[in-house]
Design a protein that fits this description.
Blueprint: H1 21-24, E1 34-37, E2 42-44, H2 45-61, E3 69-73, H3 78-89, E4 93-96, H4 103-112, E5 115-121, H5 125-129, E6 140-144, E7 153-154, H6 155-160, E8 176-182, E9 190-195, H7 197-211, E10 218-221, H8 228-240, E11 244-246, H9 255-265, E12 269-272, H10 274-281, H11 286-289, E13 297-300, H12 307-317, E14 321-327, E15 332-336, E16 348-350, E17 354-359, E18 372-378, E19 385-386, H13 389-395, E20 396-397, E21 400-409, E22 414-420, E23 425-427, E24 430-432, H14 434-442, E25 447-456, E26 462-470, H15 478-491, E27 500-503, H16 517-520
Parallel strand pairs: 1-11, 3-4, 3-5, 4-8, 5-6, 6-7, 10-11, 10-12, 12-13, 13-14, 26-27
Antiparallel strand pairs: 1-2, 8-9, 9-19, 14-15, 15-16, 16-22, 17-18, 18-21, 20-21, 21-22, 23-24, 25-26
Helix pairs in contact: 2-3, 7-8, 9-10, 10-12
The structure holds 5'-O-[(S)-[(2-aminobenzoyl)oxy](hydroxy)phosphoryl]adenosine (3UK).
The site of 5'-O-[(S)-[(2-aminobenzoyl)oxy](hydroxy)phosphoryl]adenosine has 24 residues, from helix 8, strand 14, strand 15, strand 21 and strand 22.
């Protein structure tokens, strides 16, 4: 086996490169070291690699070819990781799906991503079963856990007779390896393909250069593996340096669950969105009931981390939070604070491997200190959105990627987030489109019109708030607000629901009839 690949630029990556190298580089000296810890399984690098090879062979046995797509419909667990690396090793594209999706949302991504095989965890079978009949591209179903339908293969049985060695597909470094979905203001989420080289470069440019991850680290993440923030931070980057990852399927939005996992598995690095840190700080006896002393650094991304929250965490837990901005379009963080050199409230400074530009509406650079649109140039960007050429041309501007974020840079070179250029909200680090929440509310008989805006909660984190004008014959009351909330929860992913509903006689509008959202905000 050749030496581990280290690369900061595409040109440093061998022409034929397969992402499985990030796992297999550990088979020299670290083969018997633990690679993954989880509540039900602990695997060494050798064991992970053997199981991934069985997956590669099982995929080949059912005729999966380079360029096909396999969907992983599962909460985080050891099998997620072995299925992921087994898939990319075969040259097949791995599509990790959001575990919070409604049945229709799941149907859309499985169909749009053209999954031929779905590897579904038993915990998500109920959702999957509602739409499996509406997926013309889907040919095979493998179930992690107990299979209940005829024709479905239980994962353990599916791989049981497969050899535990396999040749990697001869993938080009620019071949597609992973597919993730990200939401926009209107319409369905957009597929984003990344090639084998992208996570490799990000591992060096942010994981090693900025975060300083080392082989002695152990990572744990609130951000899940279906989200590239979690995939990079909690799987790719630790294994890139031979460090360990903790994977758990339990609901990470329960702060006590996460704290219990930290206490039990003793990670050194924690990843999450700001809301997770705020939720942990609200837990009584945070530092007396849970041993958090193994943490050496925490990472926040997904939305801006308010300075006050940074200080509260530092004061209570005694560990710095590194805030950095990344995106699904650009594999992982491209602008970041650095351990020991943090400006709380900012997204940090420019990092090696990326150029940044802040432009005005005509595309000219703004004066230093002025707010403008942030663009980023680097080699870990995707090339386009799947099945959306029009939106792709707006976002992927040659070497530059338009982030949709407003930023200004201060005199010390720190970048400060100043909102979005679209109306999109980041709620708990996940996209919520106000337009989608509005059209869901409008579908309720009681609603005449409404407007949804982002409003800061007690921790200054943005949550959706709905202003609603009721139809004649309906009364504004707490019961009505509760009914509308329940309506949203059953029609959409629950995290998109408005956290507050305020009833108005009319919405503020311009002379031309446009809702004045800024007044509501
Ligand atoms: C916003 C931030 C302020 C920003 C992501 C780290 O969030 C990730 O990816 P998404 O595609 O969303 C990207 C958008 O989210 N955002 C993310 N981080 C920050 N805003 N401060 C931040 N620290 O609007 C950005 O355009 O869901 C984050 C790594 C990988 C990721 N995919």
């Amino acid at each position: 086996m050749s030496a581990p690949v280290r690369a900061k630029r595409t040109a440093d990556v061998p022409l034929h490169y397969n992402l499985v190298e990030i796992l297999e580089r550990n088979l020299h000296e670290a083969a018997d070291r633990l690679a993954v810890l989880s509540p039900d399984r602990e695997l060494t690098f050798a064991e992970v690699s053997a199981e991934a090879n069985q997956v590669t062979n099982a995929l080949r046995s059912i005729g999966m070819k380079a360029g096909d797509t396999v969907a992983i419909v599962s909460p985080d667990c050891a099998e997620w990781a072995t299925c992921f690396f087994g898939t990319v090793k075969a040259g097949v594209v791995a599509l990790g799906t959001n575990t919070l999706l409604t049945p229709e949302g799941l149907r859309y991504v499985l169909h749009d991503g053209r999954a031929r095989l779905a590897i579904v965890h038993e915990a998500l079978l109920e959702t999957f079963d509602q739409v499996r009949g509406e997926l013309p591209f889907l040919e095979h179903v493998v179930v992690i856990g107990n299979a209940t339908q005829e024709g479905d293969r239980p994962f353990s049985e599916w791989i049981a007779d497969e050899p535990n060695t396999a040749e990697a597909a001869l993938t080009h470094r620019d071949d597609f390896a992973i597919l993730n979905y990200s939401s926009g203001t209107t319409g369905q989420p957009k597929g984003i393909l990344h090639s084998h080289k992208d996570p490799l470069l990000a591992a060096e440019l942010w994981g090693v250069n900025v975060l300083g991850i080392e082989s002695t680290d152990r990572t744990l993440s609130v951000a899940r593996l279906f989200f590239t923030f979690g995939l990079g931070g909690n799987l790719i980057f630790p294994w890139y340096v031979g460090a360990q990852t903790v994977l758990f399927p339990e609901n990470p939005r329960e702060a006590k669950t996460v704290l219990g996992m930290i206490d039990r598995f003793r990670p050194t690095i924690l990843y999450g969105a700001p809301t997770g840190y705020a939720a942990a700080l609200a837990v009584e006896g945070l530092t007396t009931n849970y041993d958090l002393s193994t943490l050496r650094v925490c990472v926040s991304a997904g939305e801006a981390l308010p300075a006050a929250l940074w200080h509260r965490w530092q004061g209570t837990v005694g560990v710095e939070i590194i805030d950095g901005i990344g995106s699904t379009e650009n594999f992982h963080i491209f602008l970041s604070n650095r351990p020991g050199r943090i400006r709380p409230g900012s997204s940090g400074r420019k990092m090696e491997g990326y150029e940044l530009a802040i432009l005005d509406e005509s595309g000219d650079p703004v004066e230093q200190g002025q707010v403008g649109n942030l663009l980023v140039k680097g080699e870990t960007a995707a090339l386009s959105y799947l099945h959306d050429s029009a939106k792709s041309r707006e976002t992927f501007q040659g070497e530059w990627l338009s982030t949709g974020d407003k930023y200004y840079m201060d005199d010390n070179g720190y970048y400060w987030h100043a909102g979005r250029s679209d109306d999109m909200l980041k709620v708990g680090g996940i996209w919520v489109s106000p337009v989608e929440v509005e059209s869901t509310l409008i579908a309720h008989d009681a609603v005449l019109e409404c407007a949804v805006v982002g409003v800061g909660d007690r921790a200054a984190l943005i949550k959706p708030k709905a202003y609603v004008v009721l139809n004649p014959g309906y009364d504004a009351s707490d019961e009505m607000a509760e009914e509308l909330t329940q309506h949203c929860v059953s029609a959409m992913e629950a995290y998109k629901r408005p956290r507050w509903i305020e009833f108005l006689q009319e919405l503020p509008k311009t002379a031309t009839g446009k809702i004045q959202r800024f007044k509501l905000r």
